Amino acid sequence: MGKRILVTGGLGYIGSHICLELINSNHTPIIIDNLENSSMSTYEHLQSLTDEPIQYHRLDLRNQSALYNALKVSEYDAIIHTAGYKDARKSLKLPQHYFYNNIASTLNVIHENRQSLLKEQSEKPIVYSSSASVYGNHNELFVKENAPLRPLTPYAYSKLVSEEMFFGMKNVILLRYFNVIGNDDYLHFGERKSPTVKNVLQHLFDSAWNVGTFTINGKNHNSVDGTPIRDFVDVRDLAKAHVIAVEDAMRINLGVRTYNIGSGDATTILELAQAFDEVEYDFGDEIKGDISRSVADISLIDADLGWKPNITLKESIDSAWRRYQHVNK
Questions:
Q1: Which one from 135, 155, 281, 324 is the annotated catalytic residue?
Q2: Does domain 4-328 have CATH number 3.40.50.720?
């Protein structure tokens, strides 16, 4: 029998894919989103995929009373908390903005989840979308969950502080995901944000679209070609990991658990650029807070939950390129 899962940021890029996977797994999402970086058209498309009514609350998680009222009227079995700002470079310019949004909203989710369920004397399970940026730089290529945590940006630090706020709770799974790319349905799901806020693939696609030259920041990193090493995981695989995690959390109570979500494969930024024949690239200065090596060791989540990524890097890039072309046309 399907469950009712509350998804914060449920109309955003990652949240909408999680909602889609919940629907495909016979669960019903309950969506909280303030539409800052999303659109109601995404909600309408999700609703068209299921006969079950999808409850939606438009609110900002920093508004504690609004969140309390939403949870009070929502019958839910677990929470997947994905909402938050995520641009590491922008966080260097607006650190307090990132601290307030990401940390305060997470604390409110924790607090109001408990407050609205006092009659049941139990906490509903929470799956938290964290980030591999909490690891910072390491000499090892593959990072395990027990590696030292060395956040280099306010964004990464906000994720680490948010993780620590779950200390001592009874049923929480923290998912530290690496570089997320790809799209399930390029017409309906995808990033909706300022053109100035871009990930590495968007910069690469700009060059392929003849908007400009792709700049690789730094060529003295600890890698085979001197450029940063990344782990790219498809958003559809990421969504499956969230659903598998929340199903396991509803099944068994094991306290606070932490898992990496990545492909487990290393790709340098230069290798990524050279995969596009039409892309022109050059080298720029290394960016403050940029991580040299970031590749997931995913053996723990495979052993505990049986999750492995299935979508290739090429398939992910192709789907992201279709989304980019659709938006720019």
A1: 155
A2: yes
